[in-house]
Design brief:
Elements lengths: L4 E6 L4 H10 L1 H5 L3 E6 L9 H15 L5 E5 L17 H22 L3 E7 L14 H21 L3 E5 L20 H10 L21 H7 L2 E5 H17 L8 H7 L5 H9 L1 H4 L16 E4 L1 E3 L13 E4 L8 H12 L4 E4 L10 H19 L1
Parallel strand pairs: 1-2, 1-10, 2-3, 3-4, 4-5, 5-6, 6-7, 7-10
Antiparallel strand pairs: 8-9
Helix pairs in contact: 3-4, 4-5, 8-10, 12-13
Length: 380
């Protein structure tokens, strides 16, 4: 890479979505920054032959004579049913499913040429309802890594590079309990037997391997993966560690088992790491994490607010993908992150949650903030 590339997500099944994303990148192009589109998918339906053909046709018609880069973010759905993406308890199917994404990247490259980077990011979705901390952590992690190695081997044969994304704790602590997030598959019902509950929802799922800088990152790099750093996901996890740190030894507070089984994904090592390095991992300075980045890593730049907290009434849920300026990552720290990233060689994705997909106010606000930081830095 000659320098960092700035991307916006797009759903290529819709022509107008591609155009909106591309046009929003104009302020960066005016300042001679390289830009691109991160293709997103809603799930299995977007990877059917018909929808693959539609996406390729839409992209081919649009990017003609345009200087733009494209890579693919694989969906982290479905979570339920026999075709769920899950490297811990549905690994065989997950390998086949991820392989479809790798084939999709190759199809894009064959049809669109060098505009397509042979690069894909994904989640391990190693989700479980069972109790935490994991008593068989090492064995489970080795099992997951074996599946990841198989996927990576398939990708290498096709010259596709893969990145694994870090996830928040708990992974779906932003999804409220309702009919849409109720887990219905018999597999989850069997896992519920251990917890003593009658029903479970997305926010009850936990990933033992959230990929922290001190746990998981070195292992995925050793296998051969890039890191996909989602800034809001890591901030949420740090806020959870701060909450646990403040309640861990308080005998009048939440009992330890409830802490682990609520914030599925943390273990004793994370607490001791946080305790011993509070200055570096207290959740206030995500910019410190940039020292763990390597050339070619993917950074999903966004902000967050709050943590999932069922110990309060009403239950609180975290918010992720909010505008860069105004969340739990402070303005000063976000500025430091941006300055570091634009001087490096990274894939920077502005990934914001939107409900107005035509006007995208959060994306526009974040672009304005980022441009202001970049302009001030260039004058310094």
């Amino acid at each position: 890479m000659d320098g960092s590339i700035i991307y916006l997500p797009t759903l290529a099944t819709f022509k107008d979505d591609i155009e909106i994303s591309y046009n929003l990148l104009e302020p960066f192009k005016e300042r001679d920054y390289k830009t691109g589109l991160m293709l997103i998918s809603r799930g299995e339906g977007d990877l059917t032959p018909e929808n693959i053909k539609l996406q390729i046709e839409n992209l081919k018609a649009f990017i003609k004579d345009k200087d733009i880069k494209i890579f693919f973010m694989f969906p982290n759905k479905p979570l339920d049913g026999p075709n769920r993406l899950n490297f811990l308890n549905n690994q065989k199917y997950s390998i086949e499913y991820i392989s479809k994404g790798i084939n999709f990247v190759n199809n894009l490259y064959e049809e669109l040429g060098d505009s397509v980077e042979k690069l894909m990011s994904f989640h391990t979705n190693s989700l479980t309802l069972e109790n935490f901390p994991r008593v068989n952590y090492e064995e489970e992690w080795d099992f997951v890594k074996n599946g990841l190695e198989e996927v990576l081997g398939y990708a290498k044969e096709r010259n596709v590079s893969l990145g694994i994304e870090n996830v928040p704790v708990p992974e779906f602590g932003d999804i409220k309990k309702d009919e849409n997030s109720l887990l219905r598959d018999s597999f989850w019902k069997n896992e519920l037997n251990e917890t003593g509950k009658n029903e479970a929802y997305w926010c009850d799922l936990g990933n033992p391997f959230p990929i922290f800088p001190w746990r998981g990152l070195d292992e995925i790099r050793d296998i051969g993966f890039r890191w996909v750093l989602d800034t809001c996901h890591l901030k949420i996890s740090y806020k959870v560690l701060e909450f646990v740190f403040n309640n861990y030894h308080n005998k009048d507070s939440i009992i330890l088992s409830e802490i682990f089984n609520t914030f599925k994904g943390i273990d004793f090592h994370d607490i001791s790491r946080y305790w011993g390095h509070k200055e570096g991992y207290d959740g206030t300075l995500i910019s410190r994490v940039t020292k763990f980045l390597k050339e070619g890593d993917i950074i999903q730049l966004n902000n967050s607010r709050g943590i999932y907290n069922p110990f309060e009434n009403p239950v609180k849920y975290h918010k992720e993908g909010i505008a860069l300026d105004g969340g739990d990552i402070s303005t000063k720290d976000m500025e430091k992150i941006i300055k570091k990233l634009i001087k490096g060689k990274y894939h920077i994705v502005l990934e914001l949650n939107e409900t107005d997909f035509k006007n995208r106010p959060n994306t526009k606000k974040s672009i304005d903030f980022m441009i202001n930081v970049m302009d001030q830095d260039s004058k310094a």
